[in-house]
Each structure stands twice: as structure tokens, then as C-alpha cells.
Amino acid sequence: MPELPEVETVCRGLRPWLEGRRLASVIQRRPDLRWPLPDRFVARLEGRTIARIERRAKYMLAHLDDGWVLLMHLGMSGRLAVAADPDAPFEPHDHVVFLTDQGCQVRFNDPRRFGFMDLLPAHGIEDSAHFRGLGPEPLGNAFNGPELAARLAGRRTPIKAALLDQKTVAGLGNIYVCEALYVAGLSPRRQAHTVQGRRAERLANATRGVLRRAIAAGGSSLRDYRQASGELGYFQHDWAVYDKQGHPCPDCDCRVADTGGIRRIVQSNRSTFYCPRRQR
């Protein structure tokens, strides 16, 4: 599933093509994605100008000039990409197509149809079911060591599970939590309530750093992910521990023969990768 850096990368890729542009035409090629598309979806979008595109957690928000917001979620395999050739035939899984007044065509392609779209009023959007209860943005000013420590206080669950809880921090996913815990030197098995003070500060800084590097690199090129330009991201080549089971730790002197190298365990039905010597 695309995580926060992938969604942020797509948002940044779409802004030059869509911000300030009028939607001259919208093609809806099926009635639903994960859920039914909103009533009168095409009619409510055609003729509207996209004022700005933002990200909240793993959602993309296209603010329209009539006070409504087009919310988009990529799901597991969704792609929003600028068509290199607008005249090319649609692919089988091109479900929604946006055409601007400048002739730019953006196609939403989603083979598995776990993505979805919705239309929400901009006023009070944080109180909608999609956003209610979400934690702070990890790249925002409200996220820091003391805030993270407060949200982890009393949490008797592994720190990795706590970070994946969107009420703790918005938008974090499995890959970048593994990487952030590695950079912070914290075991994924550590109880969340013990991450206080300097540990919380290290983890907050590590989380921001890992996400920023991933965004700069264009996200992680998982099987289904593409940038808005159609290019692959390449942060996966910088992963320290994720999907590195049996490899030597890149930052300590442990040898594979001594420790087995990077280990993989399963937590909450998800793979966790970590260095048992570096992370405590």
C-alpha cells in the first residue's frame, strides 16, 4: 500500500498540472471503486477549478472553487498519473479520468479497486469520518518529542503497533515505521509507554528524517506504485532494514554469522525488520 511519502510525492507531481486549472471534462468509467462514487460525481466536478492540492495522512485533497473538496485515496494499487499521450486508449483499470482546460489528462488506475474518492465540504472537513481522531502529521509543527511521548504514555503495546495506530501519528505505515525505529535505535518490541523523554525525541526526529528522505527520493517503488509522472520512486534502495532479512546491519559491527543479521518477525500480521543489536 502506498504510504505517506508516496502520497506526498503524487500530490507534488500533480500540482503543476492541476492547481489553478478547470476540470473541462470528467469521465467516470464505473459506478464504484472500493465504495460507490458520490451521487452526481461527474456533474459536481465538471467546470470546477482546483484551487490547491494537499495531503492529510494518506489522503489527497483537491480543494475546489465552490467550497468542496475531492478526497482521493490510492488504496493498495491505485495510481494517479498524467497521461503521456491523452489520445491513447484507456487501460482496463482506468476508472476515473480528469481532463483540464489546458488539455492535461490525469487517469486514476486501480486494478484491485481498494482506492476510493469522495466529495466533502471544506468547512469542518477534520470532523468527517475520514479524519476524525487522526493524530498529528509527522511532518507538521505539532509533532515533536513531547507530543509523541504524551500520546504513548500508558500505552502497553509494542511501539511499532502504537506508531501504526493512526490516532497516534497520522499517515505512518509499515515500511517507514520499521525504518524510523531503526534510526532511533528502538526495538519494535519495546513497550510504547517506555518511549519517553530522549527516546521520544529521537523517535520523532527519526520519523521526520526518514519521511523527508523518502519524499526527496520519490517514495518507495513497490510493485504497484508510480509517481504522478509515471516514474518509479527509488527510496527502496536506501532501506536500512525493511525487507533485508539476513543482511548485515549497515550501522553496527554485528556479523551475520554472530547474530543472523537483520531479523524478521511478525507483529499484528505484518512483517517487522530490525537489528537486534542496534535496536533496544
TrEMBL record:
<dbReference type="InterPro" id="IPR010979">
    <property type="entry name" value="Ribosomal_uS13-like_H2TH"/>
</dbReference>
<keyword id="KW-0238">DNA-binding</keyword>
<feature type="active site" description="Schiff-base intermediate with DNA">
    <location>
        <position position="2"/>
    </location>
</feature>
<feature type="binding site">
    <location>
        <position position="93"/>
    </location>
    <ligand>
        <name>DNA</name>
    </ligand>
</feature>
<keyword id="KW-0863">Zinc-finger</keyword>
<dbReference type="InterPro" id="IPR015886">
    <property type="entry name" value="H2TH_FPG"/>
</dbReference>
<feature type="active site" description="Proton donor; for beta-elimination activity">
    <location>
        <position position="58"/>
    </location>
</feature>
<keyword id="KW-0234">DNA repair</keyword>
<feature type="active site" description="Proton donor; for delta-elimination activity">
    <location>
        <position position="270"/>
    </location>
</feature>
<feature type="domain" description="Formamidopyrimidine-DNA glycosylase catalytic">
    <location>
        <begin position="2"/>
        <end position="115"/>
    </location>
</feature>
<feature type="domain" description="FPG-type">
    <location>
        <begin position="240"/>
        <end position="280"/>
    </location>
</feature>
<dbReference type="Pfam" id="PF06831">
    <property type="entry name" value="H2TH"/>
</dbReference>
<keyword id="KW-0862">Zinc</keyword>
<comment type="subunit">
    <text>Monomer.</text>
</comment>
<dbReference type="InterPro" id="IPR000214">
    <property type="entry name" value="Znf_DNA_glyclase/AP_lyase"/>
</dbReference>
<dbReference type="InterPro" id="IPR012319">
    <property type="entry name" value="FPG_cat"/>
</dbReference>
<dbReference type="InterPro" id="IPR020629">
    <property type="entry name" value="FPG_Glyclase"/>
</dbReference>
<feature type="active site" description="Proton donor">
    <location>
        <position position="3"/>
    </location>
</feature>
<feature type="binding site">
    <location>
        <position position="155"/>
    </location>
    <ligand>
        <name>DNA</name>
    </ligand>
</feature>
<feature type="binding site">
    <location>
        <position position="112"/>
    </location>
    <ligand>
        <name>DNA</name>
    </ligand>
</feature>
<keyword id="KW-0227">DNA damage</keyword>
<comment type="similarity">
    <text>Belongs to the FPG family.</text>
</comment>
<comment type="function">
    <text>Involved in base excision repair of DNA damaged by oxidation or by mutagenic agents. Acts as DNA glycosylase that recognizes and removes damaged bases. Has a preference for oxidized purines, such as 7,8-dihydro-8-oxoguanine (8-oxoG). Has AP (apurinic/apyrimidinic) lyase activity and introduces nicks in the DNA strand. Cleaves the DNA backbone by beta-delta elimination to generate a single-strand break at the site of the removed base with both 3'- and 5'-phosphates.</text>
</comment>
<keyword id="KW-0479">Metal-binding</keyword>
<keyword id="KW-0456">Lyase</keyword>
<keyword id="KW-0511">Multifunctional enzyme</keyword>
<dbReference type="InterPro" id="IPR035937">
    <property type="entry name" value="FPG_N"/>
</dbReference>
<keyword id="KW-0378">Hydrolase</keyword>
<keyword id="KW-0326">Glycosidase</keyword>
<protein>
    <recommendedName>
        <fullName>Formamidopyrimidine-DNA glycosylase</fullName>
        <ecNumber>3.2.2.23</ecNumber>
        <ecNumber>4.2.99.18</ecNumber>
    </recommendedName>
</protein>
<dbReference type="Pfam" id="PF01149">
    <property type="entry name" value="Fapy_DNA_glyco"/>
</dbReference>
